Amino acid sequence: MNLNQVTLAVSDFDASVAFYKRLGLALIVHAPSKPYARFECPDGQSTLSLHGGDVPASTISLYFEVDDLAKRYEELESAGITFETQPTEQSWLWTEAWFKDPDGHSLCLYHAGEARKNPPWRLTDP
Q1: What angle do CA 30, 34, 36 make, to 5 degrees?
Q2: pTM above 0.70, yes or no
């Protein structure tokens, strides 16, 4: 099994489409009349969808993994993304920088390396 996509409920469809394009995701479906948009992540096979209109918002956190966190952080700041935290090393062996999208969804730009799926405390028999 592989996670295909996450769909976010958004209140300002156009602002959200512009935000995720600025973040570096590739817009692959754009149907403003629905309103619906789907993005492809620059690495891997995951996609992210946006659905606007009378859709109940939910609390969600999205994690975007990058190889060079410091470089990508600086690029996104230069593109107008406002971060709540600078890249910070966490006790769970990830380095994270947090920010929000136009609807207030929490987003994390991070690097975890081997600890992403194989931290030292991983169960041996999941």
Answers
A1: 40
A2: yes
